[in-house]
Design goal:
Layout: E1 2-6, E2 15-19, E3 29-37, H1 41-47, E4 66-70, E5 82-85, E6 88-89, E7 109-110, E8 122-126, E9 130-132, H2 139-142, H3 145-158, E10 166-170, H4 175-186, E11 190-194, E12 207-209
Parallel strand pairs: 10-11, 11-12
Antiparallel strand pairs: 1-2, 3-4, 3-8, 4-5, 5-9, 6-7
Helix pairs in contact: 3-4
Zinc ion binds next to loops.
Length: 216
């Protein structure tokens, strides 16, 4: 299959579309045909080998955020389902996993960093990392949930955000900022945006301020 492959000494000049072996599913894995992929800071840092984690393997396929179509069936996900990928490896058994903090798994890591990612035609991943895209949601919208959406949701959860509070979102027209705006609106917050884009009002911001014009 074709894949984006980055080689030492890394950087954009050392990334190219290459022919690589198809992934081989292990027990419990499903095959997913990649349809869409997000491009996030983590992916740029992978291409440049600037992550705080070591890249495996080398040469490396980047791509932490993907959506695609299941090509095999599991217990919940069936062949033909549109899916997004939770981009974290986790064992599901350690003290962090069993307390709802899979992102801290002691045997885990980021898909596309600890292992090859999804800038390729096909991936093989454990079914527990896949989520079925609901009816009515476009796959091209769903693809940005796993990194951009979860980053915003996690930040709001960490801050103890809840309805009735005021929320100020810097960079509200970016991927994560837009999700923070949308989620804030959904949970009943009064959302103000710092952005040069008036259209963020269409996503739930009631006020939009320029970077140098935020009221006290
Ligand atoms: Zn764990």
């Amino acid at each position: 299959m074709k894949a984006v492959l980055v080689r030492k000494p890394y950087g954009e000049d050392n990334a190219s579309i290459s022919e690589v072996p198809d992934p081989v599913p292990q027990e419990g894995d499903l095959l997913v045909k990649v349809q869409y992929a997000g491009l996030n800071p983590i992916d740029i840092n992978v291409v440049r080998n600037k992550t705080v984690y070591g890249l495996k393997p080398d040469p490396h396929i980047p791509g932490a955020e993907i959506a695609g179509i299941a090509e095999t069936s599991g217990k919940i996900i069936k062949e033909g389902d549109q899916v997004i990928l939770y981009p974290r490896w986790f064992d599901g058994t350690c003290k962090y996993c069993t307390s709802g903090r899979e992102h801290l798994c002691i045997h885990g890591g980021i898909f596309g960093v600890l292992t090859n990612g999804g800038y390729c035609e096909r991936i093989a991943v454990p079914e527990k990392m896949l989520l079925k895209i609901p009816e009515g949601m476009k796959i091209e919208d769903a693809v940005s949930i796993p990194v951009g959406g979860l980053t915003a949701l996690h930040a709001l959860n960490m801050a103890g955000a809840h309805g009735g509070q005021k929320l100020l979102v810097y960079g509200a027209s970016g991927n994560t900022g837009l999700f923070a705006t949308i989620i804030g609106k959904i949970i009943g917050m009064d959302v103000s945006a710092v952005s040069s884009k008036e259209w963020v009002k269409n996503y739930g911001a009631t006020s939009v301020y320029p970077h140098d014009g935020i009221p006290n």
